[in-house]
Amino acid sequence: MNYLPKLLLMCLVLYLIRAVPFFFIKGGIKNRYIRSFLAYVPYVTLSVMTFPAIVNATGSYISGCAALAVGLVCAYVSENLFLTATLCCLAVLIADLVH
């Protein structure tokens, strides 16, 4: 199979997505609302990719949602990553045993 045309098209599309804004925005973005919006884009993208994976990772929506809830509360209260991960694992085990 000849993948070269597909690969070149993919490279062109990715390059255009990254290069076109440079042609339209000569100076920096001065509007504080747009700058604030762009500052949150990485966090939103990470959240959109992570939350469905958390719920679907265990194979059971109940244990996935339990881990998500425990993780959110623990991360907000303690901000300790090891403790949060440990409690999420325990929440999955308990939810699977109960369910």
Explain the overall architecture.
Helix 2 (32-56) packs across helix 3 (61-77) and helix 3 (61-77) runs antiparallel to helix 4 (81-98). 82% of the residues lie in helices and 0% in strands. With 99 residues, the chain is mainly alpha-helical. The chain has helices spanning 4-24, 32-56, 61-77, 81-98. The mean pLDDT is 89. The protein is built from four helices and no strands. It has one domain. The protein is flat, with a radius of gyration of 21 Å.
- Averaged pLDDT, please? 89
Query: Got a strand count?
Result: 0
Number of helices: 4
Structural class: mainly alpha
How does the overall form come out from the CA principal axes? flat
- Percent strand equals under 5%
Question: What is the rounded Rg?
Answer: 21 Å
The low-confidence parts are none
Compact overview of the structure:
The protein has 99 residues and is an all-alpha fold.
Topology:
Layout: H1 4-24, H2 32-56, H3 61-77, H4 81-98
Helix pairs in contact: 2-3, 3-4
Question: Key terms for this structure?
Answer:
mainly alpha; 82% helix; 4 helices; single chain
